[in-house]
Amino acid sequence: MIQTVNVSKIYKTGMIALDDINIQVQAGEFVFLTGASGAGKSTLIRLLFREELPSAGKIFIAGRNIDRLSSKQRLILRRNIGIIFQDFRLLEKSSVFNNVAFAMKALEKPWVEIKRRVPEVLEKMGLSGREKELVQHLSGGEQQRVAVARAVVNKPHIVFADEPTGDLDPQTSWGLMQVFKQINLEGTTVVMATHDKEIVNLMQNRVLVLDKGRLIKDEAKGGWAL
Ligand code: ADP
């Protein structure tokens, strides 16, 4: 479902952020992308989401080369992908409800459906009753859960998450990980960049390890393996 073929990314500065990456992720997998800071994790996520293009190589999602999509096909791709950024990228001055509803409005979903679906997802995230609160008044962990709710509200086939537990305490991180586990059990493919050793060890999922832009390990049921 996700495949990279000889993918490299060289930034204008000359930095080789990714060097000849070949990865295959099947539908329904939950894969961790690990490695030290600067290893290329965020770059790979940005390429998979087509926020940036590779300098060389090809990326296929659901059998399509994402470099070659028409604008309509690109829209369809984005509809089927949920993304959670390291810095949340929420509308801080807007309510919890509106932040999640925003993702559905972007797909022109009818209001009746939005009104039904948003509270359903917020409940899963433990945010029931918080709909009207402004995002800027929430804690970091709560904001992160809003970001996850927004990413999954349209029931995407794939979720990419870039360090979603970044600044969270261990207990909150673990709670969030249960949410991802559930999303994955419901059929969504999850690719998560993280440097959280404990979480990787506890989850026992497949682990891809990057080191200075190269894929140095691909463990089927790995713990932290640097
Ligand atoms: P990670 O997510 O593993 O910390 P990144 O993908 O953010 O790694 O970065 C990989 C390398 O590419 C780092 O050396 C980083 O400084 C560099 N890099 C990332 N983004 C850019 C950019 N936009 N321009 C130039 N260099 C970049």
Please give the structural blueprint:
Elements: E1 2-10, E2 16-25, E3 30-34, H1 41-48, E4 56-61, E5 64-65, H2 71-79, E6 81-84, H3 96-106, H4 111-124, H5 140-152, E7 158-162, H6 170-185, E8 189-193, H7 197-203, E9 206-211, E10 214-219
Helix pairs in contact: 3-4, 3-5, 4-5, 5-6
This protein binds adenosine-5'-diphosphate (ADP).
Adenosine-5'-diphosphate (ADP) is lined by residues 11, 13, 15, 17, 35, 37-43.
Strand order of the largest sheet: 6-7-8-3-9-10
Sheet of most strands: 6 strands, mixed
Distance between the termini: 26 Å
Overall geometry = globular
Which small molecules are bound? Answer: adenosine-5'-diphosphate
Q: How many beta-strand runs?
A: 10
Write down the overall mean pLDDT. 92
Class derived from helix and strand content = alpha/beta
Residues in helices, as a percent range:
25-40%
Return the string of H and E elements: EEEHEEHEHHHEHEHEE
Strand content: 25-35%
Separate helix tally: 7
Estimated radius of gyration: 17 Å
Low-confidence stretches: none
What does this protein structure show overall?
With 226 residues, this protein is an alpha/beta fold. The protein is built from seven helices and ten strands. It has a six-stranded mixed β-sheet, with helices on both faces. A four-stranded antiparallel β-sheet has the order 2-1-4-5, with helices on one face. Strand 1 and strand 2 form a beta hairpin. The mean pLDDT is 92. The site of adenosine-5'-diphosphate has 12 residues, from helix 1.
